[in-house]
Amino acid sequence: MFRVVPGAASRKDFVLGAEGLLPAAEAQAGGETIYAAYDAQGALLGVAMEAAATGYQDVIRILYGYNPACECVTGIKVLKMAETPGLGDKIAFDPEFLKNFEALDARLAPGRDGLLNEIVAVKHGNKTAPWQVDSISGATISSKAIARMINQSGQRMFPLIMRHLDRLRAGG
Ligand SMILES: Cc1cc2nc3c(=O)[nH]c(=O)nc-3n(C[C@H](O)[C@H](O)[C@H](O)COP(=O)(O)O)c2cc1C
């Protein structure tokens, strides 16, 4: 949590689903759990959530952070993977790769119902835009899976997070 939303001092769990946004303790109908992170003064710093997609070997699952103020992704943490040691498993610790996600552009389109630019992985050395992920050389498939899962999750979740921003800022 504190790896994907830098500076977080506290956390409140919410469920986003058919009932809208509810504190996790009050949610009946189910939905997707999101973790709102606040600084020591109680200001919303970002929201963490899970995403998953199939990599080279098997499903990869991550926790990642989103900052509604900059409309950007602020970090990822690999929770589960079976990628090849020395190749795909670098998605979890390669510093250059992880730098992609420190301020990854995730601005919403004017209609506020999806991303202005799809988050995509490009071959190593070919990143030209702030919404692109520079792949790990020799592990493009694993890298693409990370970009794909963030794109899929973000297209759905970021518009909803923005819609409920006042409640998330208020902390419940
Ligand atoms: C035994 C074996 C294991 C591999 N494991 C991975 C992996 O975990 N992740 C991955 O992206 N590519 C893996 N690859 C390489 C992919 O087949 C592919 O070549 C690579 O993702 C392409 O990246 P590149 O375009 O940077 O060379 C593996 C290849 C072999 C032969």
UniProtKB/TrEMBL annotation:
Record keywords, A-Z: Electron transport, Flavoprotein, FMN, Phosphoprotein, Transport
A Gene Ontology BP annotation from the UniProt entry: electron transport chain
GO molecular function, one term: electron transfer activity
Domain FMN-binding: 55-157
CC terms in the record's Gene Ontology section: plasma membrane
Entry superkingdom: Bacteria
PANTHER family associated with the record: ION-TRANSLOCATING OXIDOREDUCTASE COMPLEX SUBUNIT G
Name of the protein this chain belongs to: FMN-binding domain-containing protein
Species for this entry: Candidatus Sedimenticola endophacoides
